[in-house]
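cache lookup: miss for this entity combination. No prior model stored, computing from scratch. Input as submitted by user K.M.:
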Amino acid sequence: MSDIPPEVIDEILSRLPVKSLLRFKISLPRVPPKGEGKYMFFDQICGGFGYDSLHDDYKVVRIVQCVFSNGNLLSETMIYSLKMGVWKDGEDCPYWLVKEDFGTYAAGALYWLGFKESHGELILVSLDLGSERFEQVLYPENLGKPCRLNLAALGDCLCLLAASGHVVTRMDVKNHVDVWVMKAYGVEQSWVKLFTVEQLEGRQHFSYMRPIAYSMTGGEVLLEMDNRKFLWYNLEKKSLKHAKIGGGLNSFESFVNFGTLVPLYGRGNEKDSKKGA
Amino acid sequence: MVKLKSNDDKEFEVEEAAVIQSEMIKNMIEDGCATSVIPLPNIDSKTLIKVIEYLNKHINMGKAAETGEEDDLKEFDEQFVNMGWEELFDVIMAANYLNIHELMELCCQSAADRLKNKSVRAVREMLKITNDLTEEEEQEIINDAPWAFEGPEIDDTVN
């Protein structure tokens, strides 16, 4: 038996279930990241957690994806119901998700950015936790041509952060981020541009920005920049001011947390859920 | 009739209708490059006989579906892949070279079925992959994913 060319191994491996593939990944020589697809495939695991209001249930989602050098995508979705206390097979995700450890949860659905085809454009993918179906969600009509997209949740809505790289010499604005909010699930017309944060040379320079929460009055939005500082954005005055936090941290990560005394676990025998909303 | 020559200099005559299931030979015929014997330097006569057997049986795939011979063909396919691992790979390589889509499909599925649930070591051996992990690296993976190292070693599906 002569040496087996990689494309033939691809043909064989693309006919195997994901579990076998994950096992085989260990037997195969390691792949340099973004390397010439000499050895079969890349794989990734994405996840998510959220509330399904249709069934009054909390669900954990795990998506395992493998891509072969011939472009074939293999995807396996498992969904855990806290109410039932069991994992079950979900619909296979037809899109290649851009790896994020967790999808963004907003109003009963999880969201990821992903690709429909290997050389296609970045699209917005949703998984409705009630119907457990994947769908492409359309971007706002006048989104323009952002150079970078990110997702966040604000209030109970999905946020699309669209960073653009125009150079406006007179004002010395090098960059700005539009914060779009989807008011109704999956409705293209419901996208509203909430505000824009401009990047100013020197004084207010950031590479990453995301909204965290509304203020109590709803008139301001708390923003986090570069894991280093918090700012308040005033929606009426369209102005920014620093939010002071004690402790003098150099770098941090922030999570939105809802205090609740209701235990997450349902009828099963789960111990305390580690992902307390 | 089209004449094929294996790498051990044996000649085989095959009906054109059968042989054009190979995209490669079909293209050669269309381009007028198949006037005499077609040499196949990658395929030995033993493997070529198997491939021709398959081509002849599958010559009228469309007709088979109409006349209810589909089950017959299915049974033939099942029997056809009932061969040793090395022999199966020779046929896969030939099907890949000749670009015979259906045959590739059939044999790769059979290979996948045999690889399924095999241990890491068995897979390496079956696909002729050299282990490039150091002992420490391998141990680390064993600790992280012990399930991956369980499973049958090479068995009679491989021979």
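stored under new cache key. The longest helix of chain B spans residues 101-115.
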